[in-house]
Design brief:
Helix content of chain A: over 70%
CATH architecture of one domain in chain B: Sandwich
Oligomer: heterodimer
Strand order of the largest sheet of chain B: 2-1-12-11-10-7-8
Radius of gyration of chain B: 56 Å
Strand content of chain B: 15-25%
Number of strands of chain B: 20
Shape of chain A: elongated
Structural class of chain A: mainly alpha
Helix content of chain B: 10-25%
C-alpha cells in the first residue's frame, strides 16, 4: 500500500468504482422499469432499491462498531472509511430512486430527511478530514499542545516576576490576567473562542502612559498598539523599571500569541469532532426511523 | 480580637507538625508584603492581597484588595462571606478558616501545598480541551433520539392498531398517529373512512385482502367469464395488484396501456379459449378496425345483434326506413311547409341530457312538421296518429262515418243525405243511414289507400298489402347501440363537427352505415406513447371490469 493513499483513492478508488457502478445500475434500472402508476417504493424496483438502501444503512451504521474493534482483521480502517464515504454518498441517490422522488409529511420522509442530515454532516466530516489536519499542523508549528501549555505557565511566572519589579498595580493587573486566562472550557468556547483583549496589556499600557506623562506627554490615541508602546518606551529613559516594563510587555505579547495558537488548535480539533455529535445521534434516530419505515410498510402492506 | 493561626508543615514520611501563633487585630491581612499578618513569600500573591474580618464567631468576610481577586473555595471572588471550613488559596498556600476555639474570635490553618499540587494549580487555566471532555455527548442524544423516533414513528401507531380504545386519543395526533404511516394521499373516494386503517389493512404484515375491497365494491365483476378463464392465468388476481391506494387523490385506477396490452397483445395464442380474440396492443399501431352491432332478432324475438366490421364492403343497415340524408342536408335546402328550409344535423339529432349520446329520432318531433299525415282535403289540419296502422285506419273510418251521419258535408259529389243539413235531434231513416255510411266507407278506403300507398307512409316505410287487402308496414329497427363495447361521448367531442366523422351529406340511402371506422379516430388519437396526438390508452374507451363482455360459446364477447 502506498503511503500517500488517502480514504479517497484507497485501493485505486475501489469503493468509488463500487458506488459508481451501484449508482449507475440503479439509474438504468429506474429508467428502464415500468411500474404501475408513478415510480414508488412498492414496485419491484422500489422493493429492491429499498432493500439495498436498508442494508447499506445497516452496514454504514456498523462502521461505528467496526472502528472500535481494534482486533478486527476485516479490512483496514482506511478501507472501511473509504467505503463508508463513497457508499454513504451513493445512498442519497438510491433512497430517492427507491421512493420515486416522492416526499410527504410521514415517517417515510422522516427517515429520508434524517438520512440526508446524517450524510451531509458526514460530508462536513470529510471536509474537516481533508482540510483541518494541515491547518492544525501549520498552527502548531511542530510544537505539541502540551509544550505550548507549559510555555504559557512559564510565561506567567516570568510575567509575575517582571511585574513585581515594576509596580504593585502592574503586578496586580498581571495576576488578574493570569487568573482570568482560560484555555478551552465549554464546547461553545472551544468552537468559538471569545476574542477578549488581554486585560494585562491594557493595564500595563495605562500605567506607562501615566508614568511617562510628565516627561513625554500623553501618547497619541492611535499609538495604542503594543509595538508603538515598545518604541515609545525604548525612546524614553532606559532605567531598570522601563527595561522590566518592556520585557513584561514582550512576555505578555508572547503569551497572547501562544493562547491564540492554542485556542485555534482547540477550535480546529473541535471542528473536526463536532459533526460527529450530529452524525452519530442522528444516525441512531435514522435507525429507529428506518425500522419504523420498514415495519409500517409491511405491517399495513 | 484574637486570631489563632495554625501553621501546618509537612514532615518526612507524611507526618505533619502544627505551629500555633496568635494574631491580634480587627483584620487578618494576607500578602507578600512584610507588614501582612500572614506573610506569603510567593509572587502569585500581591503585596497586600486580601483581608479577612470576623463577622461573628465562625463567620468570616474575605475581601480582595487587588483587582485580580482571591480564590475562595475554588472560585475567584472580590468579596465573600464564608463560614468555617472555607478554603482560600493563594499561590502555593492554602488557608482554611476554622471555628475559633475558646478565647479566640478567629482561627485559620495555613498549609503549604505540595509541589505537585502547585504544578497542577499552575495549569488551572487549562479548561476542557476537547469536545469529549465537555458536556456534549453522543451517547445520550443517541438514546433520546432513537427512543423518541421509535416511540412516535412505531410504538404509538402500533398501540393504536392493537388497542382500539387508544385510537380517539392517538389518531388525531400530528406526530405519532397512524396517519404518519401513510406514504401518500388516499384516493378521493376513500377519504371518508381514511382514518380507519383497519377497514382495509388487517395489520400483521398481511396485504390488503380482496374481501376488504368487496365489502363496498361487491358488485364489481371480474374481467371476463371466470368459467372460461382461470384468473391466475391473467396475472395476479388480487384487487390490490392493480389498485394501489395512497398514491394520490386520483391514482387508484390504472389507465396505462400495459394493463391490457400485456395480455391482449397475443391473447389468441396464449389462451386456448380466446382464439377468436383479435390481438390489441396500441390504438395507433395495433388495434383491429371497428366492429358494429347491427340490429337483429332471433326467431324467438330476442334481440341478437349481428357483429359486422365497418371495413366489410357489404355492410348495410336494415332499419326498415327510407331516409336519404343527402336530400335532407342539401345545401340549397329542402321544401318545407313554409318554403325551402336548410337543415342541419342538429335539426333532428339532439344530444341526450348527459351529452354522451344522441336522442332517438322521433316522428312527431323530427319529421311530422314536413311529413304531415293528413287525409282529408276539407280538413287539412286533421292528421292521423303516427305509429299504429290499424289505429290510423280506424281514425280515418270514424272521421268519415261521423261526417256522413252528421250531414252538411260540403261536397257536391256526395249523396244528398250527406250534404243535407239537419237540425239537432232530427231523425235519420235507416235507409238514409245506410246510404251515408256506404259513402263514408268509400271515402275512408280511398283516403287510407292514399295515405298508406302513395302520399305519406311510403316516403319512409315499406308498406305491403296482403292477399286479403290488409296493410302492413315493415318494422323499424334503427340501431341504437352501434358500439356497445366502447365508451364514447359526443360531449367531449363538441369541438368537432358532425361531418368530421359521419359522412351524411353524401349518403343517399338509409342502408348506409355512417359510423366512422378506426382510421377516423386515429387522425386525432394515438396509443399511450403516441406523439403529437391525443395519447389514448385502452381505458380511454374500454372498461376492464366489463361484466357485459362475457364470452359466448365461440369465445367471442357476448352482449347481455
Amino acid at each position: 500500500m502506498a503511503m500517500h493513499e488517502s480514504i479517497f483513492d484507497y485501493s485505486r478508488y475501489r469503493y468509488l468504482w463500487v458506488s459508481m457502478v451501484l449508482s449507475l445500475g440503479s439509474i438504468v434500472a429506474y429508467l428502464w422499469h415500468d411500474p404501475i402508476g408513478e415510480p414508488n417504493g412498492g414496485s419491484w424496483l422500489g422493493y429492491t432499491l429499498g432493500t439495498i438502501g436498508a442494508l447499506l444503512i445497516l452496514w454504514l451504521l456498523w462502521f461505528g462498531i467496526r472502528k472500535r474493534s481494534y482486533k478486527s482483521r476485516v479490512g483496514t480502517m482506511r478501507g472501511w472509511l473509504s467505503a463508508h464515504v463513497y457508499l454513504g454518498t451513493s445512498l442519497i441517490l438510491i433512497a430517492f430512486l427507491h421512493s420515486g422522488f416522492q416526499v410527504g409529511w410521514n415517517i417515510h420522509t422522516l427517515a429520508l430527511v434524517l438520512m440526508l442530515i446524517v450524510i451531509f454532516s458526514g460530508f462536513f466530516g470529510v471536509y474537516t478530514y481533508v482540510r483541518y489536519p494541515a491547518v492544525m499542523t501549520r498552527n502548531r508549528d511542530s510544537a505539541t499542545r502540551q509544550s505550548l501549555l507549559d510555555e504559557i505557565a512559564e510565561l506567567d511566572a516570568q510575567a509575575l516576576q517582571l511585574a513585581d519589579t515594576v509596580d504593585p498595580k502592574v503586578h496586580a493587573a498581571v495576576l488578574r490576567s493570569i487568573e482570568r486566562t482560560e484555555i478551552g472550557g465549554s464546547f461553545i468556547t472551544l468552537l468559538r473562542p471569545s476574542d477578549e483583549t488581554d486585560n494585562a496589556l491594557d493595564q500595563v499600557k495605562t500605567f506607562m502612559e501615566q508614568r511617562d506623562k510628565p516627561a513625554a506627554g500623553a501618547p497619541k490615541k492611535d499609538m495604542s498598539t503594543m509595538f508603538a508602546m515598545v518604541d515609545f518606551l525604548s525612546a524614553g529613559s532606559a532605567d531598570a523599571k522601563s527595561d522590566a516594563l518592556r520585557k513584561l510587555l514582550d512576555t505578555l505579547a508572547r503569551k497572547r500569541s501562544l493562547t491564540d495558537r492554542i485556542t485555534r488548535d482547540l477550535q480546529v480539533q473541535a471542528l473536526m469532532e463536532i459533526w460527529l455529535y450530529v452524525h452519530v445521534p442522528l444516525s441512531m434516530a435514522l435507525l429507529a426511523a428506518l425500522t419504523a419505515h420498514v415495519v409500517s410498510v409491511f405491517f399495513y402492506w | 480580637m484574637r486570631w489563632q493561626i495554625l501553621r501546618v508543615s509537612q514532615q518526612a514520611k507524611g507526618a505533619t507538625s502544627v505551629e500555633e501563633d496568635i494574631h491580634f487585630g480587627e483584620t487578618l491581612t494576607v500578602g507578600r508584603g512584610a507588614d501582612q499578618a500572614i506573610y506569603l513569600p510567593d509572587l502569585r500573591a500581591a503585596l497586600s492581597h486580601c483581608s479577612v474580618t470576623v463577622k461573628n464567631p465562625g463567620r468570616y468576610r474575605i475581601q480582595s484588595l487587588i483587582v485580580a481577586g482571591v480564590r475562595v473555595n475554588g472560585n475567584i471572588v472580590q468579596e465573600i462571606d464564608v463560614g468555617a471550613g472555607a478554603i482560600l488559596e493563594l499561590g502555593g498556600t492554602r488557608l482554611k478558616f476554622l471555628d475559633p476555639p475558646k478565647d479566640f474570635e478567629g482561627a485559620v490553618e495555613i498549609t503549604a501545598m505540595a509541589a505537585e499540587e502547585i504544578a497542577k494549580n499552575a495549569n488551572r487555566f487549562v479548561g476542557k480541551l476537547t469536545l469529549g471532555e465537555t458536556r456534549l455527548s453522543k451517547r445520550w442524544p443517541s438514546w433520546i433520539l432513537f427512543s423518541g423516533v421509535a416511540l412516535f414513528a412505531l410504538i404509538l401507531p402500533l398501540l393504536a392498531h392493537y388497542v382500539p380504545a387508544s385510537r380517539p386519543a392517538l389518531d388525531p395526533l400530528p406526530i405519532g398517529s397512524r396517519d404518519t404511516w401513510q406514504a401518500g394521499q388516499l384516493v378521493a373516494a376513500h377519504h371518508f373512512f381514511g382514518e380507519n386503517c383497519n377497514l382495509c389493512h388487517q395489520g400483521n404484515f398481511k396485504t390488503v385482502q380482496d374481501e376488504s375491497c368487496k365489502a363496498c365494491h361487491g358488485n364489481i365483476g371480474g374481467h371476463v367469464d371466470d368459467k372460461r378463464f382461470t384468473l391466475s392465468q391473467l396475472g395476479d388476481s388480487e384487487c390490490a395488484f392493480c389498485h394501489r391506494d395512497h398514491s394520490g387523490i386520483e391514482a387508484l385506477i390504472r389507465e396505462d396501456q400495459e394493463l391490457c396490452a400485456d395480455c391482449h397483445d397475443d391473447l389468441s395464442k396464449r389462451e386456448k379459449n380466446a382464439t377468436a380474440q383479435l390481438d390489441v396492443a396500441d390504438f395507433a399501431s395495433k388495434h383491429p378496425g371497428f366492429v358494429v352491432s347491427l340490429a337483429n332478432w332471433d326467431t324467438a324475438g330476442n334481440y341478437k345483434p349481428t357483429r359486422v366490421a365497418l371495413a366489410n364492403p357489404d355492410i348495410k343497415e336494415t332499419s326498415g326506413l327510407k331516409f336519404p340524408h343527402d336530400l335532407h342536408l342539401a345545401k340549397e335546402g329542402i321544401q318545407g311547409p313554409d318554403g325551402d328550409e336548410v337543415m342541419q344535423c342538429g335539426s333532428c339529432h339532439q344530444p341526450e341530457p348527459g351529452g354522451a349520446r344522441l336522442r332517438p329520432i322521433d316522428f312527431e318531433d323530427n319529421c311530422q312538421k314536413c311529413h304531415k299525415l293528413t287525409y282529408s282535403i276539407r280538413e287539412a289540419d286533421r292528421e292521423v296518429t303516427h305509429g299504429k296502422p290499424a289505429l290510423m285506419k280506424n281514425e280515418i273510418e270514424e272521421f268519415f262515418a261521423g261526417q256522413a251521419l252528421e250531414g252538411a258535408f260540403n261536397d257536391t259529389n256526395a249523396p244528398t243525405v250527406v250534404r243535407t243539413r239537419r237540425r239537432p235531434g232530427q231523425p235519420i231513416t235507416p235507409q238514409e243511414r245506410a246510404e251515408a255510411l256506404s259513402w263514408a266507407r268509400e271515402q275512408a278506403t280511398q283516403s287510407i289507400d292514399n295515405l298508406f300507398n302513395s302520399n305519406a307512409c311510403t316516403y319512409c316505410h315499406t308498406v305491403t298489402t296482403d292477399d286479403v287487402g290488409s296493410l302492413s308496414v315493415a318494422p323499424v329497427r334503427v340501431v341504437g347501440f352501434w358500439m356497445p363495447k366502447a365508451r364514447f361521448s359526443h360531449r367531449s367531442h363538441e369541438s368537432m363537427t358532425c361531418s368530421d366523422c359521419h359522412k351524411a351529406e353524401t349518403s343517399s340511402d338509409s342502408s348506409d352505415v355512417l359510423m366512422p371506422d378506426i382510421d377516423n379516430c386515429q387522425t386525432c388519437h394515438a396509443g399511450e406513447h403516441g406523439e403529437n396526438k391525443v395519447p389514448s390508452t385502452c381505458i380511454t374507451c374500454h372498461g376492464y371490469h366489463e361484466t357485459r363482455l362475457d364470452l359466448d360459446n365461440k369465445g367471442l364477447p357476448e352482449l347481455r
